[in-house]
Amino acid sequence: MHQYRSHTCGELRESDVGTSIRLSGWLRNRRDHGGVYFIDLADHYGVTQLVIAPGTDMYEMVIRLPKETVIRADGEVVHREEGKVNPAMVTGGIEIKVTEVEVLGPAEPLPFNVFPETQVPEELRLTYRFLDLRRSKMHANIILRSKVIASIRRRMVELGFTEFQTPTLTASSPEGARDFLVPARRHPGKFYALPQAPQMFKQIIMVAGFDRYFQIAPCYRDEDARADRSPGEFYQLDLEMSFATQEDVFAAVEQLIVGVFSEFNPSRPLTPAPFPRIAYQDAMLCYGSDKPDLRNPLIIREMSDVFAGSTFKAFAGKTVRALKVPQSSQQTRSFWDRLEARAKENGAAGLAWLLVEADGSLKGPVAKFFTPEEAATLKARTEAGTGDAIIIIADAAAAKVCRIMSNLRDFLGNQLGLIEQNVYKFCWIVDFPMYEFDEEAGRIEFSHNPFSMPQGGLEALNTQDPLTIKAFQYDIVCNGYELSSGAIRNHNPEIMYRAFEIAGYPKSEVDERFRALVNALKFGAPPHGGIAPGIDRIVMLIADEPNIREIIMFPMNQNAEDLMMNAPSAVRPQQLRDLHIKVVEKPAGSNPPGTK
To answer: Can you give the pTM of this predicted structure?
Structure first.
């Protein structure tokens, strides 16, 4: 017999009754029933119940073992007694009559329960992540993640993509989030960077003549944590296609996404392909966000033109948006007070709300300021009827109105139970603006990916107001989460130089900062495009987990610390000398950028 096991803890069935077996695993739970001792022995594959009779040295040893001790148990498979079969367990029809036990791995007292799975502070869970991962929910999430990645790989190959690996030590990126820098010992004063994404490499792969590339790529960005974003390191499905239009990219990704989500949640409806295409401008108007949750039926309506010449000075000449709140006549005054407080927390000067009466008139604090024509148009555009409410936000800054209305839309959708449950609603956000005006810097900047192809090409760059130029850029969104951004790339050096010139980059700076990519594009570059859906967010949605740390094996906490490995940590002085680095002490009372 094998030294440790003849079977796993999830393998034995009633057909094995009478067999002599050997199991190894963790002492997950135990029960003393009138002197007969029951143990739930667990391993990666499942749980099997052991039975140990009293009156033996083995019995006296086992009852003193702490939970999570690793043991080997020999014995015979027997039927469970009538009435004690557990149909919730795949091994619930049998148990093991134990004849011998050996301790393989002693365990100290646990900092928290592995079973039962009680609520534990996240910091403690991350410190003892190896224990947390033994808990059934976490174990299942990590196995799900592995299966999702395996499914993605299989489907990408079936779609004609080839997997390649790109470097994880590269040059610092001048765009995007902060880099993680790695000092180059052999080149004092110089640094590698961990890649924020394989962007330039995958474009160069297309220039090199490979047609469809993908990889499950690690990416590193020194940015703050969010519930749907892990600080430091994350993984994405990076893909690129040669001789591809925007629709070609969409078709490949939709086939992949529908296949993966249907495989792991077959009972949950999802948007059929082709997914809806929503222009960026329309998304910001109707939902206040470029990552709308389409499970929420509430639609924001433009009212700026209606109130442009209004005598009501709170609205006149401002960006004005309205939102119907269905059947809200039963809401109390405290509800509207809470809603107004939420609007103010997000920067609103105030919130106007009205109710539609049975006779069609509007009732509310600001109703008296509206002309009959304004009131009629307001009701018509919002499609508000008897018993509905209308909320209105106005501000000189359109971006602020979008942000406030987006927050209120999400809040109302949840408070009023309007969010459709147990569905996946996908869409593409398209036609992003190529440029935006940075008020603080006082200049035009790229609004999305600087390597995107502008719609209209060189002619648009030379003849249009830059702020009216759209790009072949797109995001895929599911249930309010952005899964990925992508673009059809600017593969023409002449167009690229002009695009960067508009954003204030002279040709010499483009050549210096993006030397490898620009050089490659000068030697025959195919039209190409791609996207990079986030693996972590895909698994998070499939697992129905609101926090991304629940589907990552060894995540950092919100302060970008690995509590289990004690990282980041100080290093030995000799290591710093080898790297020609000196640590400068932070002045008392100061904080690094981005902290409080």
So the answer is: 0.92
